[in-house]
Amino acid sequence: MIMPLLSVRNLTVQFRVDSGWVTAVDDVSLDVGEGDCVGIVGESGSGKSVTALSILRLHQRATTRIPSGTITYQGQDLLRERGSTMRRIRGSEIAMIFQDPMSSLNPVLTIADQISETLRQHQGLTGVAARKRVVELLGLVRIPDATRRADDYPHRLSGGMRQRVMIAMAIACKPRLLIADEPTTALDVTIQAQILELLRDLRKELKMSVMLISHDLGVIAEFAQSVIVMYAGRVVEEAPVAQLFRRPVHPYTVGLIAAVPKLDSDAPRLATIAGRIPGPQEIIVGCRFSPRCALVQPRCRDEPPLMQPVSDGQSARCPPRILVLGERHG
Amino acid sequence: MTDVGLGSLATASVIAAPRGHGTLRRLLRHRSFMIGFSVILLLTLAAVLAPLISPVDPSAMRVRLRFRPPSSQFLFGTDMFGRDVFTRVLYGARVSLFVGIAVCVISGLCSAIIGVIAAQFRKLDGAIMRLMDALMSFPAILLALGIAAALGPRVSSVIIALTVAYIPAGVRIVRAAALTVREMDFVHAAQVSGASSLRIVTWHILPNCLSPLLVHLTFIFAYAMLAEAALSFLGVGIQPPIASWGNIIAEGRDYATEAWWVMLFPGIAISLAALSLNLLGDALGDMLDPRLKGGE
Amino acid sequence: MVDQPIVEVRDLKKTFAVKHAGGTSTLHALSGVNFDIMRGETLGLVGESGSGKTTAGRILVGLIPASSGTVSLFGHDIAGANGKAQLAAVRSRLQFVFQDPYASLNPRMRIGSAIAEPIDIAGTHSRKDRNDRVAELLELVGLPRNSVERYPHEFSGGQRQRIVIARALALNPDFVVCDEPVSALDVSMQAQIVNLLLDLQERLGLSYLFIAHDLAVVRAVSTRVAVMYAGSIVEFAPKAKIYSDPQHPYSRALLDAVPRADPDFVRHPVVAGEVPSLLDPPPGCSFHPRCAYAMDRCRVEAPSLRESGPGRRVACHLFSA
Fold first, then answer.
1. Residues of B with CB under 8 A from a CB of A
2. SS3 call for A19
3. Which residue of A106, B266, C77, C187 is 20 to 30 Å from B107, comparing CA positions?
4. Kind and range of the H or E run holding A329
């Protein structure tokens, strides 16, 4: 059994609010293998971004606590490593890009300065060598006229360009894992397509693993090889991408896929999921999706369900449904 | 969740967490706020109940009791005229707190109105802001000194002088908030429905500019008290025999070695009042910081 | 019975003066836009940033003044010399639904007052009638009656958007401009709000201008679709046609670029380049720098919107004689 590159086990993350602590991520486990492309999909409150931030320990120390869980990277538990180790890992081994390119870049430094910072920190490059590498990187992310653009300030660049710069900074030290948190959400559709194509090509060229977080099922379907579906802080389903879309198991996944408006067909009304996403402070006993589920049974409200395998590579957190499916096949 | 608009960011930076019972509970639990609030409350009560706490005439001179150090009979000692310093400090609190509140309220009202007008009517904006800049280019205390000297040494002069000195800072704050609020979609929604400028300013813009102004005003309260003390100390403010913390210190200056207690206790009172107001203001600022608001 | 359009926009232009270090430049947000909206239909206005769709929507309700052209609503031209008076005459028949549910409600106003605001401004209802109307509106959008006393922050994004819709319907408008009404919502909530808008249209006979960048959502609500690029309409078609057979190269590129929730979908090559600067637009057709089919003519002559089929118009030299 090959060791996965990154292994998250039983991660629970809580935030402090006035009345106490609230759980944003509840007992989440996932793996990212060498060269894998994992997509994490969920709506607001699903905990997908918090999970990603926890991997690099980028959360607010004062108001966040991680009462349990391990995040294993190359045999070390990142949650228990020293600050200096994390600083070494961030940027050079595990890199991250974020949603909003407007606020991810320092407005008072040129592009070259910002990319050079990473190069200096992790590879000790300075002066001419750093400059050469900067231009090379900008070319790699397909920024036209890279030599001139390197001396621009962020405000002169469009959203798509800034995101490319972010990607250049992220891949500067050839990380083994790239975490992309909603990298294209704030971009126009045609630019989004360009950026996704870029990420796909870079992944192949640099032999990187990618963890892509998105609320957009289309982006996940196009980009990911395996998908993890999160709802209200928990993983509710995981499957290889084709299987997830062809045969979703968890009622939330089924509902979510059905609710996406279709580009290629018409319907008098859109399919909906009844009710709404629970707030982080709402306490729901049993399955968190039970208040909205069309297939709900008494046992769903009594005990929190466990993840169960459905078939090769696919598992879901819904015993009643798995039972029904099993009966159909068995 | 997609956040394509910058509206929510702008909302967060200007508009405070709306009122509700949650706010009151948070206030009560906030340590700085409780300390600051309690001290100011205590000082206010002391000022209001002064005649009950110390039923002595603050201006009563008893030459035989001059320069008595603090004792059980005279808590803060007596001054160069034999007056009870404790009583004078209590009555001085009345003046200082009254000036503080008056300056706060009047300058707050003026700042709010002028600031919103400047933000809403761009043609007047230029003229108003240049006037504010001109006022702000004088150090507040000098400006107040000049006005108070011109108007004569009494409480009302001090209040007018300080109000004028502190209005520009408030106007800046309200105008900045109002300019941001104007661009919010809920203002546009009112415009689409045909709301008049007056309605928009009264119901939409002003209520959402109050939070930053409120925090600012607690600091103005403190500055006003300190400034009143300074003005009275310099002789252009409240004149003895009416006690004010400032003029008690002024009178005590010549006797610093013989009767250090005359300067010390009003000094402590001023510091305590200013400090507690700063704590209050900081706490309010933290509290109204939308980052702490539970969000999506 | 002659089908008269309720909205007629002719040669609408809008420029903004942009101040910067070197002086002032002109930003061409809209360069001569023409469209009609018929009673009871939904015109979907689709485009990316810089297309001008939001500007057009806001001009239609009088939030922004037009630079030139005519904007005729129910026969009244609000862009002309007497614009303000004309707008006042039709104001009660128009409304606007905003994008961001967190910024379109006054956080210090109870939602009962927020919903009633159009009524209060118009001053046409008695106190009792006003409160009854608010209760009616809450029910119409699926919110509990006791919501009147609560503040916006007590509601979720989807619920807030319902409140915004209730407010828009307060005076029974005939025409509602919806500017990205669901793009800030979660997928499951988007579907609910889209259905609500469709239900309300059926029940109340509303006409919509539905502005969005999400083509799939536009498909779900529109009768006809107009595609905008860099300040002008490049294609106009009934819904059924534009998705199955886009004519303008940009429409095609746009449809190709949308990610499909279907892993078997085969991707077409992605169009390169970015939206041109509106301060310094390229000569000729504004799409030509990115167009795979650009000819010499495209670089010098801007194409005009021409008939290219039943109910279809396109601005592209590939389709002109």
1. 1-4, 22, 25-26, 29, 294, 296
2. coil
3. B266
4. helix A319-329
pLDDT at C73 over 80: yes
| CB spacing of B2 vs A18 below 8 angstroms | no
User: What one-character-per-residue DSSP string does C113-179 give?
Assistant: HHHHHHHHHHT-S-HHHHHHHHHHHHHHTT--GGGGG--GGGS-HHHHHHHHHHHHTTT--SEEEEE
User: In the numeric block, which tokens belong to residue C81?
Assistant: 């010399």
DSSP A63-90: TEEEEEEEEEETTEEGGGS-HHHHHHHH
Which tokens hold the place of A94?
Answer: 């595990």
- pLDDT confidence band for C272 (50 / 70 / 90): confident
Rg (CA), chain B: 23
Contact C106 B208 (CB under 8 A): yes
Please indicate whether residue A100 or residue A203 has the higher confidence score (pLDDT).
Answer: A203
Is C141 within 8 Å of C166 (Cβ atoms)?
yes
Q: Are B181 and B209 in contact (CB under 8 A)?
A: yes
Other Cβ atoms less than 10 A from the Cβ of A285: the count is 11
Measured in angstroms, the CA of B29 and the nearest CA of chain A are apart by: 9
Read off the pLDDT of residues A108-117 as tens digits, 9 standing for 90 and up.
999 999 999 8
Q: How far apart are the first and last CA of chain B?
A: 8
Q: Is B56 left (phi over 0), alpha (psi -120 to 50) or beta?
A: beta
C-beta separation of A159 from C223 below 8 A: no
d(CA B156, CA B99): 9
DSSP string, C65-118: --SEEEEEETTEETTSTTHHHHHHHHGGGEEEE-S-TTTSS-TTS-HHHHHHHH
With CA atoms as reference, the chain C residue closest to B294 would be C153
Asked if residue B241 has a cis previous peptide bond (ω within 30° of 0), the answer is yes
* Spatial contact of B163 and B103, defined as CB atoms under 8 Å apart: yes
Q: How far apart are CA B95 and CA B102, in angstroms?
A: 10
Q: Cα separation of A118 and A170, whole Å?
A: 9
- Chain-centroid distance of CA C315 in Å reads 20
Q: Can you spell out the DSSP letters for B25-89?
A: HHHHH-HHHHHHHHHHHHHHHHHHTHHHH--S-TT---GGGTTPPS-SSSTT-B-TTS-BHHHHH
Segment holding A58, helix H or strand E:
none
pLDDT per position as a tens digit, A250-288? 999 999 999 999 888 888 999 999 888 888 888 888 999
Q: Are A201 and A148 spatial neighbours (Cβ–Cβ below 8 Å)?
A: no
| Cα–Cα nearest to B81, from B248, B245, B265 | B248
Q: Write out pLDDT tens, residues C52-63.
A: 999 999 999 999
The nearest alpha carbon in chain C to A271 belongs to C191
pLDDT of residue C60: 95
Backbone phi and psi for residue A282, each to the nearest 5 degrees, phi listed first = -75, 130
Contacts of C152 in chain B (CB under 8 A): 18
Report whether C261 contacts A222 (CB < 8 A).
no
pTM given for the model: 0.87
Cα A155 to Cα A19, C23, C106, distances in angstroms: 41, 18, 31
C-alpha to C-alpha distance for A235 and A46, rounded to whole angstroms: 9
pLDDT of residue A279: 84
Rounded Cα distance between A3 and B285, Å, is 50
**Beta strand pairing status for A177-181 and C42-46?**
unpaired
Angstrom distance (rounded) from CA A260 to CA A271: 8
Mutation pick from A44, A181, A191, A260 vs chain B, by most beta carbons of B within 10 Å, is A44
* Euclidean distance between CA atoms C272 and C284, whole angstroms: 19
Tokens representing A314?
């696919």
pLDDT in tens, B182-235: 999 999 999 999 999 899 999 999 989 988 898 899 889 988 888 888 888 888
Q: Give tens-digit pLDDT for A115-145.
A: 998 899 888 888 899 999 999 999 999 999 9
